[in-house]
Specification:
The complex is a heterodimer of chains A (175) and B (504). Chain A is mostly helical and 175 residues long. Chain A is built from six helices and two strands; from the N terminus they run αβααβααα. In chain B, helix 7 packs antiparallel against helix 8, helix 8 packs antiparallel against helix 20 and helix 15 runs antiparallel to helix 16. Classes of the chains: A mainly alpha (175), B mainly alpha (504). At the A-B interface, helix 2, helix 3, helix 4 and helix 5 of A face helix 11, strand 2, helix 22, helix 23 and helix 24 of B.
C-alpha cells in the first residue's frame, strides 16, 4: 500500500509545481532589448542618454527582483521551468501555427493581391483550418460577403488607403 | 470670459439647429471609434477637405460630434470582444469583457453608454462653467512635473491591470523602453531601431494597439467555441430590452460614481498629452481604492466599467479647454481642430470669447448636444450589437486578424507596420498567457516618447543634472503621491487580512 502511495505522493508534488518558464520570456526579452538599446546610445550626448538609462535601470532592477523570486521558487520545488500555460491547450498548437503562417502570408501577399482578394483568401483558409474542414461552401460565401463588404465600406465609402490589387483596380475602372 | 445664462440657452438652441450635421457625425464616429486603427483624429484628417469647406462653426460642430461619439464607440469592441477601439478605452475591458463572458453584454453596453453620455454631458457643462480656472492647470505642470505624471500613469496601470504588481511594472517599463525606439527629438540620433528606417519616427501606435490587443486576443479566443461561457450564451440568447433597461438602471444608481470619475477625466484632459488612457486608468484605480469590494474589480464589476468610461469621456471636453483658452491642444484631435480653425483665420485665446462667443463656447454646446442625441440613438442598438459575442470564434478570429492587420497599414501605408503588428501580437500573446497585462505594455509605448521629451527638456534646462527631477515643490509632492499610490494596494491588502484575522 505504502509502495503505491509514495510514488503517487511524489507525482502529486511534481504536478503541483507551477510552470514559470513562460513567465520568463517577457523579462528576458526586456533585458536583452535594454542591453541592445544601451549599445545604440553610447555615442549620444548625456542629456539624450539619461531617460533611457533611467527607464532601463528601473526595468533591469524589476527584472532582477523577478528572476530572484523565480529562482527561489524553482529551487524550493514550488515551481519548474515548464512552458505550461503558454502552449496550453496543446490540441490548438497546430491550428495556432497554421494561422500564424497564414497571417505572415497575408501581410506579404496583401501588397500585391490587394485588400479584397487577399482578405477573402486568408479568411476562407483561416476559417476552414479552425473549423477542421467545416462547411467550405458556407465559409466561402461568408468570406466573399465580408471581404466585399469591407471593400464597400472602407474603400468605396470612406476612401481608406488600403492596399489595392486587381479587384480594386477593376472596380475603380468599372465605377 | 464671464458666463451668462442667456448665452448658454441661446447657444444650446443654436447648436440643436445643426442636428443634421451632428447626427451623421455621431454615426460615423461610432463606426470609426469601434474599429481599431481608425481614430477620430485619422477620420477628421481624411475628411479635412469637407471640414475646411464648411463654415468654421459648422466644421467645428462636426468635428466635436465625431470626436465625442468615437470616444464612446471605442468602448463597444472593448466590451464585446476585448479589443479597445482606441488606447483611451484600454481600461474598459478590465470589467466590461468579463461581464460579456458571463452573458451580460446587454447590461455592460448600456452601462458603458449611460456612463459615457452622462460623464461627458456633466463634464461638458462643468467645463463651460469652470473654463477660466481649469485652463490654468496646464501652466503649473512643467517638464519635471510631467515626468512624475508619466511615471504615475505607468505605476497606476501596473498596480491596476496586473494581478501581480511586479509583473505589471515590468510590462509597463518594457513598454516604456519600446516607446523610446526611434530618433530622439533634439539630436535626431536613431536608437534601438534594429536598423529599420520605418522605426526612426518612433514606434507607430496603431500597429502596437492592433498587435497587443486584436491579434493576440484572436489567438487566445480561438481556444473557446464562443466568447461567452455556456451559461452566458443561454443568457445572451434570452436577453432583450429588459436587460438593456437593467443596465441603464445599474448605471443611474451609480450616479455619484459617474460624477467623480468623470471629473478625474476632465482635470486630466486639461493637461496636454496626458490623454484618455491615463484618465481611464487613474479613475479605475481611484474607484477600486475607495470601493468596499475591491476584490470584485476585474471580475465584471459594474463600478469597474463605469469609472473608465466616465473618465475617458470626461477627457473629451477637458482637451478642448487649453485649446480654446490658451491655444494649446490637449490631444491629437484637438490639434487638428486648431489647424482647421487657423485655416479659417480664427485665432484661439481669451479674445475669442469676447469677439465670437458662438465659436468659442460652441464646441462645448456641440459636445453637450451630441451626448444628448447619442443616448437616444445608441441605447436601442445595444441589444443588436451584443449578438456578435455569440458568433463562433472559429469565424471571429480570422475576421479580427485580417481587418485589424490591414487597419495598421492605413496610417502610414507601410507594409512594415503590418509585420510590426504581428510582432506586437506575439508579445501580446505571450503577455496574456503568462500574466503580464497588455494594457500596461501599450500605455508604456504611448508614454515612452512623451517621458523622453520631458526628460530631454529637463536635462537641457539643468545642464545634465539628473537631480533636477527632484527640484520642484509640486514635483516632489507628486513623487510622494506616486510612492503612496504604489504602496496603497499593499497596505489595503494587509489591512483587510488583519481585519479578517481579528474577525476570525
Amino acid at each position: 500500500m505504502s509502495e503505491i502511495s509514495a510514488p503517487a505522493a511524489q507525482d502529486s508534488a511534481v504536478r503541483e509545481r507551477k510552470p514559470v518558464g513562460g513567465e520568463l520570456i517577457i523579462p528576458i526579452a526586456g533585458l536583452l532589448f535594454t542591453a541592445y538599446y544601451f549599445t545604440t546610445i553610447t555615442d549620444s550626448p548625456w542629456t539624450a542618454q539619461v531617460s533611457a538609462y533611467f527607464v532601463g535601470a528601473i526595468l533591469t532592477l524589476l527584472i532582477a527582483i523577478f528572476l530572484v523570486k523565480t529562482f527561489i521558487a524553482v529551487s524550493g520545488g514550488r515551481a519548474d521551468l515548464g512552458l505550461g500555460p503558454l502552449i496550453a491547450p496543446k490540441e490548438f498548437v497546430r491550428k495556432r501555427l497554421i494561422l500564424f503562417g497564414l497571417m505572415l502570408a497575408y501581410c506579404y501577399l496583401v501588397q500585391f493581391g490587394g485588400f479584397t482578394l487577399t482578405t477573402f483568401v486568408f479568411m476562407t483558409a483561416g476559417m476552414i483550418v479552425l473549423t477542421d474542414g467545416g462547411n467550405k461552401r458556407f465559409i466561402a460565401i461568408l468570406c466573399a460577403f465580408l471581404a466585399f463588404g469591407g471593400w464597400a465600406l472602407f474603400i468605396l465609402a470612406f476612401d481608406t488607403r488600403f492596399p489595392d490589387g486587381p479587384f480594386e483596380k477593376l472596380m475603380e475602372w468599372l465605377l | 470670459m464671464d458666463f451668462q445664462a442667456s448665452l448658454f440657452i441661446e447657444l444650446f438652441a443654436r447648436t440643436f439647429s445643426f442636428w443634421y450635421v451632428i447626427l451623421p457625425a455621431i454615426l460615423l464616429g461610432l463606426v470609426v471609434g469601434a474599429i481599431p486603427g481608425f481614430s477620430a483624429a485619422n477620420t477628421i484628417i481624411i475628411l479635412l477637405p469637407l471640414t475646411l469647406a464648411m463654415d468654421p462653426e459648422v466644421g467645428l460642430i462636426f468635428m466635436v460630434a465625431l470626436y465625442a461619439s468615437s470616444r464612446m464607440g471605442a468602448g463597444i469592441p472593448a466590451i464585446l470582444v476585448n479589443i479597445p477601439g482606441t488606447a483611451g478605452a484600454a481600461a474598459t475591458p478590465l470589467d466590461g469583457y468579463p461581464m460579456t463572458q458571463q452573458g451580460h453584454a446587454h447590461q455592460a453596453l448600456s452601462i458603458s453608454f449611460v456612463s459615457s453620455v452622462f460623464g461627458g454631458l456633466l463634464t461638458t457643462v462643468m467645463a463651460l462653467l469652470a473654463m477660466p480656472w481649469l485652463s490654468q492647470v496646464a501652466y503649473y505642470l512643467h517638464s519635471v512635473e510631467m515626468i512624475v505624471v508619466m511615471l504615475f500613469g505607468i505605476s497606476l496601470i501596473a498596480t491596476i491591470a496586473a494581478k501581480d504588481t511586479l509583473k505589471g511594472l515590468i510590462a509597463g517599463f518594457f513598454g516604456l523602453m519600446i516607446g523610446l525606439i526611434g530618433a530622439d527629438v533634439i539630436y535626431a540620433t536613431p536608437r534601438g531601431t534594429f536598423g529599420f528606417l520605418e522605426l526612426y519616427d518612433k514606434v507607430p501606435l496603431i500597429p502596437a494597439l492592433v498587435g497587443l490587443f486584436a491579434v493576440s486576443e484572436a489567438f487566445v479566443v480561438m481556444e473557446r467555441q464562443s466568447i461567452v461561457s455556456d451559461a452566458g450564451r443561454q443568457r445572451m440568447e434570452e436577453a432583450g430590452w429588459a436587460e438593456t433597461w437593467e443596465g441603464v438602471c445599474m448605471a443611474f444608481s451609480r450616479w455619484w460614481h459617474i460624477t467623480w470619475t468623470s471629473i478625474i477625466g476632465l482635470v486630466i484632459g486639461v493637461v496636454p498629452g496626458a490623454g484618455a488612457s491615463i484618465a481611464a486608468f487613474v479613475a479605475y484605480q481611484q474607484s477600486k481604492t475607495f470601493s468596499k469590494t475591491p476584490e470584485l474589480y476585474g471580475t465584471g464589476h459594474i463600478e469597474g466599467l463605469v469609472a473608465p468610461e466616465s473618465a475617458n469621456n470626461g477627457v473629451t471636453s477637458g482637451t478642448l479647454i487649453p485649446l480654446l483658452v490658451i491655444g494649446i491642444p490637449g490631444g491629437a484631435t484637438a490639434a487638428i481642430m486648431l489647424v482647421v480653425l487657423q485655416y479659417h483665420g480664427v485665432t484661439v485665446g481669451p479674445d475669442l470669447f469676447m469677439d465670437d462667443p458662438n465659436l468659442a463656447y460652441g464646441p462645448f454646446s456641440a459636445m453637450a448636444v451630441t451626448y444628448f442625441i447619442m443616448i437616444f440613438t445608441i441605447l436601442p442598438l445595444a441589444r443588436y450589437m451584443s449578438k456578435i459575442t455569440v458568433v463562433s470564434t472559429n469565424y471571429m478570429a480570422p475576421l479580427i486578424i485580417s481587418f485589424t492587420l490591414v487597419g495598421s497599414f492605413v496610417s502610414r501605408e507601410y507594409a512594415f507596420d503590418m509585420y510590426l503588428a504581428v510582432v506586437f501580437g506575439v508579445i501580446g500573446y505571450v503577455a496574456r498567457k503568462t500574466g503580464y497585462h497588455v494594457a500596461a505594455i501599450l500605455i508604456g509605448v504611448i508614454l515612452g516618447p512623451l517621458l523622453e521629451t520631458y526628460f530631454l527638456r529637463a536635462m537641457k534646462m539643468s545642464q545634465g543634472d539628473i537631480m533636477v527631477i527632484f527640484s520642484s515643490s509640486l514635483g516632489n509632492v507628486l513623487w510622494v503621491f506616486l510612492f503612496i499610490s504604489i504602496g496603497i494596494p499593499y497596505y489595503m491588502d494587509w489591512r483587510r487580512a488583519r481585519q479578517k484575522e481579528r474577525e476570525a
